[in-house]
Automatic annotation (TrEMBL):
Subunit description: Homodimer. Component of the TFIID basal transcription factor complex, composed of TATA-box-binding protein TBP, and a number of TBP-associated factors (TAFs), including TAF1, TAF2, TAF3, TAF4, TAF5, TAF6, TAF7, TAF8, TAF9, TAF10, TAF11, TAF12 and TAF13. The TFIID complex structure can be divided into 3 modules TFIID-A, TFIID-B, and TFIID-C. TAF5 forms the TFIID-A module together with TAF3 and TBP, and in TFIID-B with TAF8. Component of the TFTC-HAT complex, at least composed of TAF5L, TAF6L, TADA3L, SUPT3H/SPT3, TAF2, TAF4, TAF5, GCN5L2/GCN5, TAF10 and TRRAP.
GO BP terms: mRNA transcription by RNA polymerase II; positive regulation of transcription initiation by RNA polymerase II; RNA polymerase II preinitiation complex assembly
Origin superkingdom: Eukaryota
Feature: compositional bias, Gly residues: 30-50
Region feature (Disordered): 1-69, 153-173, 384-438
Organism: Bos mutus grunniens
Gene Ontology CC annotations of this record: actin cytoskeleton; transcription factor TFIID complex; transcription factor TFTC complex
PANTHER family in the record: TRANSCRIPTION INITIATION FACTOR TFIID, TRANSCRIPTION INITIATION FACTOR TFIID SUBUNIT 5
Chain intervals with Acidic residues compositional bias: 384-395
Xref: PROSITE patterns: LISH, WD_REPEATS_1, WD_REPEATS_2, WD_REPEATS_REGION
Coarse class of the protein's main subcellular location: nucleus
Protein name according to UniProt: Transcription initiation factor TFIID subunit 5
Gene (UniProt): TAF5
Subcellular location: Nucleus
């Protein structure tokens, strides 16, 4: 494909010896940084929990096996350090001391190290890490402190791994966290697997207090928080849920089943209502054996629960736990929670409730600090020929006059560069074909006839109801020019309808094509076989329900994703399957083409989203970080970013260039099922099973609005072509229209709000709701705005 140039300044397209060009692999160790004041996070999801990997092209032609491992590169000449077995005879205290010395050495605290060594009367050669700086594994302070916490936390026992501090070899290797040589200052190699090593994950629960005291510890903390000042109570109440979970799991792991059951029954009613589904899963874990291989359990253990608390509230908590000498709770806070401390006023209950609810707490403030290029790319300059027939056809004299300024405004819009836009060549995009240019001209002509929507001018809604859809409608998509509609069904078929008088035709057979004059003007018409003309085409190939469908911008291709773990690319010229992309091992819930074509994204039950190119059978990027299924995926209008909505109740924004997670949005209280970007690329709207639609400012990484009204899952969201109206479709059989201009006009994005997350959402859903349109008994699966701002909605009639 000509789209991928060989020389790029920022994104060089790496030409591989065998196989087509692809995007560069992501940089290692680029995760989002840690926020200040919290405990260091060194688990597999450390630093924002985003791991991206590029798979190698080529291979054996079978199912691609993308590697999801990010590894830092060793400096030249550095020999890898073998992870030697720890000294069997070394007592626990000595190992702890060695770990502390190792940490001091790597932090360049020479004086403290010397003083400690003299005091402990340790010989120079006995200290781990005393080799030359080039040979030592300097995995950074983070890894060493994590090592220290593991050494002190895990009591020797059958399930606890030995602390990985080498004795006689004279160098420390941190096995399980980082092995091999790592460049100074970089975090070591972190390997992500589908399931973390269960014994290592559970070992933290081997340290235990008196099981009969757990209820007393929890009750004591609960009493303290409930009796604290109002301003601190709301913030400290966030501790209840993560502490409850970890204390319960600790009791179960240590086989105190009766105490665990009693603890659960006594306190599970105190938790917030939006954690009920998680608690239901938790209540089924009643024996140690149940914990092994349980995804929910591993999620809680491997990802630190993030709490955002003001410094005053944190000091109050710390003082209380130290006075009471409540080590059990303090250990859990340090081991399993990440407390993101900010300076300033504590947040109110309402402010906290708006942001919490996800599987791993809130997002760290650091996770939303990186710069995002949310502006639109410059449109190519295309001359729009004036259509005389259209002008003559209109009786109104003012019509042609109105048209010209509109045309000029379109032209001038494309000449100005958006200051927030990414560089034009940041990622390689396909070049425009002649057919694309013709389509753009048609689009511009349609734009001149577009209805300007607003509170006083609402769009008409045309609803496509799928009747007798006994196969079960599971996905719908409409082409950009609204000429075709595709449905994915539970019987594993994909059906394509023409919604214009023009019927669907396939290309003629090869023998007939050879007779056609290739130079004739209407060659594209002649190659079509009139005998095959029909309003409906059925595509067979999947072996499971089809959950996602997406047309390419040029209407030549259709993508479908299925429970069978594949994404298929279909030709709309021949109505046959061209490629089956095999990368996901589990059902693929959604897929979507880039607005520029060529690239597409998919997300599924394996908790990752993958970025593909149509001419590569392996993914170019793997976006890993969600803690549950990726339910929906969307490309940003400039194609440089991908948004994913997950059953872990978070939305993430990923950078296509390097695979990094650049935004984490928390606030939904249920799995997310719909996403849409505003046409200007600045805002994101998300819908979930909680029936709420949340609005986000991408540049500042803040929630800026909440639209309440739906009573069931919001399955579809779309902005009008000019961004004035947001349409939402739900399982409650309604389409609702919201005033997007008003929702975004009073957005507070001052520095204080951005820094602390003190968001104040106005309760103005009823003012923003412009209209509610009910269907008889049809859940709204899909919404689409035509180029003239007519709303098309689709769903399958479900008799009561």
């Amino acid at each position: 494909m000509a789209a991928l140039a060989e020389e790029q300044t920022e994104v060089a397209v790496k030409l591989e010896p065998e196989g087509p060009p692809t995007l560069l692999p992501p940089q290692a160790g680029d995760g989002a940084g840690e926020g200040g004041g919290g405990t260091t996070n060194s688990g597999p999801n450390g630093g924002g929990g985003n791991v991206a990997a590029a798979s190698s092209a080529g291979g054996d032609g079978g199912t691609p096996k993308p590697s999801v491992a990010v590894s830092a590169v060793a400096p030249a000449g550095a020999a890898p350090v073998p992870a030697t077995a720890p000294e069997a005879s070394a007592p626990h205290d000595r190992q702890t001391l060695l770990a502390v010395l190792q940490f001091l050495r790597q932090s360049n605290l020479r004086e403290a190290e010397e003083a400690l060594r003299r005091e402990a009367r340790l010989l120079e050669e006995a200290v781990a890490g005393s080799g030359a700086p080039g040979e030592a594994d300097s995995a950074g302070a983070e890894t060493a402190s994590a090592l220290l916490s593991r050494v002190t936390a895990s009591a020797p026992g059958p399930s606890a791994p030995d602390p990985p501090v080498s004795g006689a070899s004279g160098s420390a290797a941190v096995s399980g966290l980082a092995t091999g040589s790592v460049a100074p200052g970089k975090v070591g190699s972190v390997s992500v697997e589908d399931q973390p090593d269960v014994s290592a994950v559970l070992s933290a629960y081997s340290q235990q207090g008196d099981p009969t005291m757990y209820e007393e510890y929890y009750s004591g903390l609960k009493h303290f928080i409930e009796c604290s000042l109002d301003c601190h109570r709301a913030e400290l109440s966030q501790l209840f849920y993560p502490l409850f979970v970890h204390m319960y799991l600790e009791l179960v792991y240590n086989q105190h089943e009766n105490e665990a059951k009693s603890f659960f029954e006594k306190f599970h009613g105190d938790q917030e209502c939006y954690y009920q589904d998680d608690l239901r899963v938790l209540s089924s874990l009643t024996k140690k054996e149940h914990m092994k291989g349980n995804e929910t359990m591993l999620d809680f253990r491997t990802s630190k629960f993030v709490l955002r608390i003001s410094r005053d509230s944190y000091q109050l908590l710390k003082r209380h736990l130290q006075e009471k000498q409540n080590n059990q709770i303090w250990n859990i806070v340090q081991e399993h929670l990440y407390i993101d401390i900010f300076d300033g006023m504590p947040r109110s209950k309402q402010q906290i409730d708006a942001m919490v609810g996800s599987l791993a707490g809130e997002a760290k403030r650091e996770a939303n600090k990186s710069k995002v290029f949310f502006g639109l790319l410059k449109e190519p300059e295309i001359e729009v020929p004036l259509d005389d027939e259209d002008e003559e056809g209109e009786n109104e004299e003012g019509k042609p006059k109105k048209k010209k300024p509109k045309k000029d405004s379109i032209g001038s819009k494309s000449k100005k560069q958006d200051p927030n836009a990414p560089p034009q060549n940041r990622i390689p995009l396909p070049e425009l074909k002649d057919s694309d240019k013709l389509d753009k001209i048609m689009n511009m002509k349609e734009t001149t006839k577009r209805v300007r929507l607003g509170p006083d001018c609402l769009p008409s809604i045309c609803f496509y109801t799928f009747l007798n859809a006994y196969q079960g409608l599971t996905a719908v998509d409409v082409t950009d020019d609204s000429s075709l509609i595709a449905g994915g069904f539970a019987d594993s078929t994909v059906r394509v309808w023409s919604v214009t008088p023009k019927k669907l035709r396939s290309v003629k057979q090869a023998a007939d094509l050879s007779l056609i004059d290739k130079e004739s003007d209407d060659v594209l018409e002649r190659i079509m076989d009139e005998k095959t003309a029909s309003e409906l085409k059925i595509l067979y190939g999947h072996s499971g329900p089809v959950y996602g469908a997406s047309f390419s911008p040029d209407r030549n291709y259709l993508l479908s994703s299925s429970e069978d773990g594949t994404v298929r690319l279909w030709s709309l010229q021949t109505f046959t399957c061209l490629v089956g992309y095999k990368g996901h091992n589990y059902p693929v819930w959604d897929t979507q083409f880039s607005p520029y074509g060529y690239y597409f994204v998919s997300g599924g039950h394996d908790r990752v989203a993958r970025l593909w190119a149509t001419d590569h059978y392996q993914p170019l990027r793997i976006f890993a970080g969600h803690l549950a299924d990726v339910n929906c995926t969307r490309f940003h209008p400039n194609s440089n970013y991908v948004a994913t909505g997950s059953a872990d109740r978070t939305v993430r924004l990923w950078d296509v260039l390097n695979g990094n997670c650049v935004r984490i949005f928390t606030g939904h209280k249920g799995p997310i099922h719909s996403l849409t970007f505003s046409p200007n690329g600045r805002f994101l709207a998300t819908g979930a099973t909680d029936g709420r639609v949340l609005l986000w400012d991408i540049g500042h990484g803040l929630m800026v609005g909440e639209l309440k009204g739906h009573t069931d899952t919001v399955c579809s969201l779309r902005f009008s072509r000019d961004g004035e109206i947001l349409a939402s479709g739900s399982m409650d059989n309604t389409v609702r229209l919201w005033d997007a201009v008003k929702a975004f006009e009073d957005v507070e994005t001052d520095d204080f709000t951005t820094a602390t997350g003190h968001i104040n959402l106005p309760e103005n859903s009823q003012e923003l709701l412009l209209g509610t349109y009910m269907t008889k008994s049809t859940p709204v699966v899909h919404l689409h705005f035509t180029r003239r701002n007519l709303v098309l909605a689709a769903g399958a009639y479900s008799p009561q």
